[in-house]
Amino acid sequence: MGSTNGPNISELSGSSLRPAERLPLDDKCRHYEGKQQVPWDIQKYFAQRYSIFSWYDEGVHLTDDAWFGVTPEPVANAIASSFGGVAPEKTVLIDAFAGAGGNTIAFALSERWEHIIAVERDTSTLACAQHNAEVYGVDPSLITWVNGDSFEYMDALVKHPHHLHPDLQVDMATTVLFASPPWGGPGYRSDEIFDLHTMQPYNLDQLHAAYEPMDHVLFLPRTSDIRQIAKLAPDNRKIDVIQYCMYGASKAMSAYIPASVKPIRNENGCTASDTSSTDDSSSDSSDSDDSDSPPSVQCSKGPLQEE
């Protein structure tokens, strides 16, 4: 899950985005070795550090903010495994909120993707993600890291792809976007049904409006209002939802949403959205083999379609 630090969406300009160089760890990138070093508000997350990163002791670094949003490793691996059923023509994955690298690393180690573009707006958090990918032995040529905003990236990809570095220009018909946005802090846990229209700093409408030109997956709180998600289903299409559980308790859900805008051609001739080429992807994308998931994670799935 990505950081909330950085410019407001309304302040973003049309500046060109480029791949990030290898960033050095700075004083915000920390590897705590004992509870006495850890700020009180993240001590419970530190106690679960081996569920978050099993290789934590090998030198994993996080910013203090990143502890709140990183996907636990067994869940990240289960998500990556569930993408195995995505249509084979999908070869590029965009991780829109890369955070400290939990999901990006799992996607890379799944060996499913030819190219991964990982976007993170906070420089220190991105430095942690790059470092953590190295700790896990990820092939550096597989991931293009971007120190920027995924909303700006998507806007440029649709409207001005020629402004982008060649490594960031993709064919939307062969690309899937995964978004694990901030959920507005731990307060979402108190809601029996979480209203996704009030999620901060980005609500469901903002996320879907930005990402709908391509097939996209939203990683959301486990109590998210299913009715709100179902309304995003394109005509005659269904949205697959997977609940991810650890130790018998649901931790989160993913909604697999097909592209819902008409096919257009962007300025470099690539198809920005071609629903005919992904007709079966919404049903295939959630076909996960539970036997391939880590032992502590179970996945339950089901299709959604607005009545």
From TrEMBL:
Matches recorded under Pfam families: Methyltransf_15
Region of interest: Disordered: 266-307
Bilayer-crossing regions: none
InterPro entries reported in the protein's UniProt record: RNA_cap_Gua-N2-MeTrfase (IPR019012), SAM-dependent_MTases_sf (IPR029063)
Catalytic activity: a 5'-end (N(7)-methyl 5'-triphosphoguanosine)-ribonucleoside in snoRNA + S-adenosyl-L-methionine = a 5'-end (N(2),N(7)-dimethyl 5'-triphosphoguanosine)-ribonucleoside in snoRNA + S-adenosyl-L-homocysteine + H(+); a 5'-end (N(2),N(7)-dimethyl 5'-triphosphoguanosine)-ribonucleoside in snoRNA + S-adenosyl-L-methionine = a 5'-end (N(2),N(2),N(7)-trimethyl 5'-triphosphoguanosine)-ribonucleoside in snoRNA + S-adenosyl-L-homocysteine + H(+); a 5'-end (N(2),N(7)-dimethyl 5'-triphosphoguanosine)-ribonucleoside in snRNA + S-adenosyl-L-methionine = a 5'-end (N(2),N(2),N(7)-trimethyl 5'-triphosphoguanosine)-ribonucleoside in snRNA + S-adenosyl-L-homocysteine + H(+); a 5'-end (N(7)-methyl 5'-triphosphoguanosine)-ribonucleoside in snRNA + S-adenosyl-L-methionine = a 5'-end (N(2),N(7)-dimethyl 5'-triphosphoguanosine)-ribonucleoside in snRNA + S-adenosyl-L-homocysteine + H(+)
Coiled coil: none
Gene Ontology molecular function: RNA cap trimethylguanosine synthase activity
Keyword tags: Methyltransferase, Transferase
Annotated PANTHER family: S-ADENOSYLMETHIONINE-DEPENDENT METHYLTRANSFERASE RELATED, TRIMETHYLGUANOSINE SYNTHASE
Protein name per its UniProtKB record: Trimethylguanosine synthase
Protein's organism: Drechmeria coniospora
